[in-house]
Amino acid sequence: MSNFSNNINVDKHTKSISELINRARQVRKNAYCPYSKFAVGAAVRTASGEIFIGCNIENSCFSPSICAERAAISQAVSAGHKEIVECAVVAYLPNEYVYPCGVCRQTLAEFANASKDIKIYLAKPDEYDDKFFVSSISELLPGIGKLNLN
User: Fold this and answer.
1) Residues 21-40: tens digit of each pLDDT
2) Is 87 known as a binding-site position?
3) Of residues 19, 58, 69, 127, which has the active-site annotation?
4) Binding residue per annotation — 33?
5) Which has the closest alpha carbon to 135: 5, 6, 4?
């Protein structure tokens, strides 16, 4: 988890980052989370610049639940896009940002170009909050990569 001291103002960055975060905010509203009540939205940008979105979908036995990040990646891969360059994750905790879980980190790493990293933007659901936290898949999952799996 992260504290708010590392916030970055979205106005200092490109409109494309803002668009990615806003798409994640919008899809978060569609989350199916009757058990945890913890709604998450995600948006991924592919190497071609297209954006794919996903939200978490829970199941009463939890194991088959789908995280928002993996839902967005599934949309991208289903459309023929297999290289992710950016990901925005939107969820709410009072004093923290929500990071992708371990399975989502590994899935993101799977679809990163071997020579590149994926930027991860963590944001709150409030569309009037222009701050977000920036990380990367190499920071969240150090020492892993396709080269390490061969």
Assistant:
1) 999 999 999 999 999 999 99
2) no
3) 69
4) no
5) 6
